[in-house]
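step=encode ok
step=design start
structure_in=
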């Protein structure tokens, strides 16, 4: 066993290089969470396409649960988007995605399915288009 005279038992690691900038990864790697987010929005659109009556029917609980899960997944992917990319696309409600995720994960009784439905119908399609454009621009600008 080492004693105090032998030096420290553990050697601290050097700090890791920051990973929150475009320089930290390839264009495809930086664009991946944006494409994932757009994919989750596409899945939400598939649920919307099944219709409002089905979504809110007694048997529609699976659709409602799936939509909630997609909103959580959206935020999980958004957390992987570098800060400088978030700043470049302010039309994506980055903070609000996190707020919705927190409500869904921690206050599920208070979440109204109608609000999620309306958001999926009215706001997600435009957000998906922005995310696809952002991924295309990143891959084109950094390639």
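sequence_out=
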């Amino acid at each position: 066993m080492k004693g105090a005279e032998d030096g420290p038992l553990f050697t601290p690691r050097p700090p890791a290089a920051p990973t929150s900038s475009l320089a930290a990864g390839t264009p495809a790697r930086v664009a991946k969470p944006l494409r994932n987010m757009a994919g989750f929005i596409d899945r939400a659109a598939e649920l919307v396409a099944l219709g409002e009556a089905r979504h809110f029917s007694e048997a529609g609980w699976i659709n409602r649960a799936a939509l909630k899960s997609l909103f959580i997944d959206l935020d999980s992917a958004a957390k992987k988007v570098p800060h400088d990319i978030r700043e470049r696309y302010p039309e994506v409600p980055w903070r609000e995605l996190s707020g919705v995720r927190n409500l869904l994960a921690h206050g599920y009784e208070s979440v109204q399915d109608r609000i999620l439905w309306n958001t999926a119908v009215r706001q997600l399609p435009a957000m998906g288009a922005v995310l696809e454009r952002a991924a295309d621009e990143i891959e084109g600008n950094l390639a």
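step=design ok
step=annotate ok -> Residues 27-142 form one domain.
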